[in-house]
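Re: [help] complex structure
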Amino acid sequence: MHLWNGYHPEMVTDYYQFTMAASYWKEGMEGTATFSLFVRDYPPHRAYFVAAGLESLAAAIQEYRFHPDSLEYLRSLGKFPKGFLDYLARFRFTGSVRALPEGRIFFSQEPLLEVTAPILQGQLLETLALNTLHLETLLASKAARCVAAARGRPLVDFSLRRTQGVDAGLKTARSSYITGFQGTSNVLAGRLYGIPVYGTMAHSYITSFQHEMDAFRAYARVFPDNTVLLLDTYDTLSAAEKAVLLAKELQKQGKALRGVRLDSGDLLHLSQKVKDLFRHHGLDEVAVMASGNLDEYRLEELLSQGACIDAAGIGTRLGVSADAPYLDMAYKLVEYDGRPIVKLSPGKTTWVGRKQVFRSYGSSGVMEEDVLGLAEEEIPGTEPLLLDIFRNGERVRPEESLQDIRRRFQEDWARLPEKYKVLRPTERYPVRISDALRTLQDRVTRARKREEVGDLGGVRSEE
Amino acid sequence: MHLWNGYHPEMVTDYYQFTMAASYWKEGMEGTATFSLFVRDYPPHRAYFVAAGLESLAAAIQEYRFHPDSLEYLRSLGKFPKGFLDYLARFRFTGSVRALPEGRIFFSQEPLLEVTAPILQGQLLETLALNTLHLETLLASKAARCVAAARGRPLVDFSLRRTQGVDAGLKTARSSYITGFQGTSNVLAGRLYGIPVYGTMAHSYITSFQHEMDAFRAYARVFPDNTVLLLDTYDTLSAAEKAVLLAKELQKQGKALRGVRLDSGDLLHLSQKVKDLFRHHGLDEVAVMASGNLDEYRLEELLSQGACIDAAGIGTRLGVSADAPYLDMAYKLVEYDGRPIVKLSPGKTTWVGRKQVFRSYGSSGVMEEDVLGLAEEEIPGTEPLLLDIFRNGERVRPEESLQDIRRRFQEDWARLPEKYKVLRPTERYPVRISDALRTLQDRVTRARKREEVGDLGGVRSEE
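Output below.
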C-alpha cells in the first residue's frame, strides 16, 4: 500500500545523518554551520549544468518535521541516546538557504546551494538536498543538450516507461520542459505541473485491428483534428501510402492529417522518402515525427545528414541521462562556528567557507567569466548568482511558476557562448577563484595538514 | 506540496494510452488481449536478469481506479469523446496476470509478465507495468553482480544521495537486499521494508570538530558498541593511528572498535596498510570497510589484487546502474480476440501469443535450458516459471515477504551455472523457441507481410 503513498521528507535520508545528529546533540554542538552543494567535475562531453530541483527541495524543507510514525521507527531501532528523539520531535528548520534559482546555467565547483544553520539541521538535510537537486539538475542538463541538437524543432518527452521510477519520470518531464521541450507524454506531469501532454498511438493499437488501415481510420474517427499515425508496425513505406490515403479521406471532411511517426528502421532515409511521398501528394504540411532510441547525439547526426524530421519524441536516453547517469555532486561542510573548514581527501577538493558566484558579461551580454569567491566579497560589475531562499527558517523567495523558470533558462542560454553548447565541447568555461578565497583555502589547508597528518603529536590524551 | 504526496497509479502513464483506450471504447472493441512484457536483449556484460518489482505493480493494480481528481484533469484536456470518462469512472481491472515471482533469474526474450484482459485494460497498464518492473529488475540485476564480486563479504547500499529520485533510492535498497546485500543506509527503506539500516559518520562530522581525534572520541561516547571511524578526511594512515588509539581506549572500557571506513585514495594499498597496523596492535577484529565509487568491476579488481576489505558500501554506480542505466524492456500486444499478433518493425522481434517459460535442470540441479513456448504447451520434466498472480481481477497469489523473495533468489542463484555469473560473460544461456511457437510465429509473420506490405491492394475503400 505504502508504495503509492507519500514519503515524509525527514525519512529520505541516510542513517548516518541521525547518528551524527545524535552526537552533535549529545556534545551540545549548537554552532552555526554552512554546507555547500556543488558538482565536483563534468561528466564526459559536458561543459555546463542547468540548475533545477530547488522548488522540490524548498517544499520539502517547508514541510520538514518529524512525524510520529517516523519517530516511532527511529525509536524501534533502539540505538539513540535518551532525549534525542524528543529533541527531534520539536525540530524545526531555523536556518538560511541561498541557492541558484532554477533554470540558471552554472559550472563545476560552483555552489548550487548553501545551507547555513545550526549544524545538526544542516546535516540532516544533506541526503534530501542531494537527491533532489542531483536528479533534476542531471536531467535538465541532459535535456538542454537535446534541445540544442534539435535546432528549433519541437521535442516531446517520451521517457516515462523506462525512467528510474515515477519520481524520475516526473522530473524528466519537468526538467525538459524548463529547457524548452514542448511537452511530455507523462500524464501525471501534465496534471501536477500543467505541462502540455502529447501522444496518439502505439504498435499495439495498430496490431489490434485486422488491418493497419482499419486502425488508421478508426483513430481518425475519434480524433480527426489530431491524428499522428505510427508508420513502422509492418512496413514504413507501405504505411506511408496508407497515410496519404487517410489524409485525402480527411481532406474530404475538411480535416487535415496532423502527422506521422517513425519509430524504428533507418530514420534518415525513411524520413526523406516519407516526406517526398507527402510532398508528391501536396501534403507538405503533414509533420514527420521521429522517435526510438533518440538522444542529442543521434538527433544531431540525423539532422546533419539531412533527415526530414519536423519533431521528435525523446525517451529513455533522456530520462535516465544514459551517457552520464549521475553527477559527482557533493554537500560539504565548509564552515562551523566561525571556523573555515576543508577536508584533504585526495581528488575531492572542497572550497572553504560561505561562498558566492560572481558572473560577468561581455559588452554583447555574453557570459565572460565567473568568479568563485567568499560570500562577503563584493566584485563590482558582476552579478551574484546565489539568492536568499530561506532566512531564519522562513521562505523569503516565493514559489516560481514553471513558465518563469523556463524563461530564465532561455535568457541564460542566449548568453552562453556557442563553444560550450556543442555536443562535444573542448573548452571549459572560465571559473576563477578569488584571491580572498584562495588565500583562505591555502591557510586552512596548511593548518589542517600540520595538525592532522603525521604522528600523534596533535592528539591530547583522553581526560 | 504535491511533491511529497502520493501518486495515483492511473495517472502514471503515457497520454497515448488514453487516446488508444478512447478509440477502443468508441469502436466497441471489447475482445480479450494478451500483452507480454520482456527484455529484448542484454546490455553489455549481462547474461541474466533478476525479476523484481512485481509486489509494487500488484499493489498498484489492486488500487487501480480513476479518482475524481484524475478524471477532472482528463476532462480539462477537452479531447475525449462524450461518455468515455464516465466509462473510466466505472473502470475496474477484471483481467488476469501471470508473472515470474520476484527473485527469479530470467533471460532475454522471456516474458516476465503477461496481462490477459479486455484490450482497453491491458493497454492502460502498459506504462505503469514497464516503469515498475523495469526499475527494480534493472537494479536487482546490477546488485546481484555486486554481491557476486564481493565473494561473500557483506555489502551495504549507500546510494540514496544520487539515485534518480526517491523512488529509485527505495528500490535500490529493496532490490539489493533481495540479491543478498546486508542492508542499506536508506532510512525510508528501513522503515517501509524492514531492511536493516547502517551508517556512522561523514567527513562533515569529522571536520566539525577541532581535531579528528576529538570527533572519533565523541562518536564513541554516544555509540560505544557500534563505532566505524571514517579515516580519509585528512590523511588515512594518520587517522588509522588515531583509530588504534581509540580502539585501545575502548578496550579499557570493555568495548571494541567495530571498524574503520576508507572512502577515497588508493584503496588497495591503504586497506593493506591499515589492516597491517591493526594486526600489529592485536586489533585483528576491527573491520576495514571500503566505499567511494565502488561497483562490481572495482570490487573484483581490488579483491583480486589482494585488498584487505572486510565489507563495502556501494553507492551511486549501483543506484543508477551506471554501466547499464536502462534495459530494453517492452510490453507488446501478442494476442487479440483469439488472433495471434506480431509486428514487423526491424530489430524489434516480438514472439506471438500467450507464452510460458519452461526451465529444465541437469542432474546436479543446475539450470540447463529454458524453452520459450506457448502457454498451453506441456513440456514434461520442465518447470513452468510464470505463475498466476491475478485471475478475473482478483489477486490469487498473496503478497510475499522480502525474506521469502531473498530466499528464492538464493535458490536460483545456486542453480545458475558459473559461466553466466562472471562480470564479463562470453556465453548466453540457451533459450530455445518451442516448435509450436516458431511455427505460429512464421505463419502469422508471413500473413502480415502478405497483407500489409507493398501496394494498397489490402485496403478496402472507406464506406
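Chain A has two domains: 2-139+324-453, 150-319.
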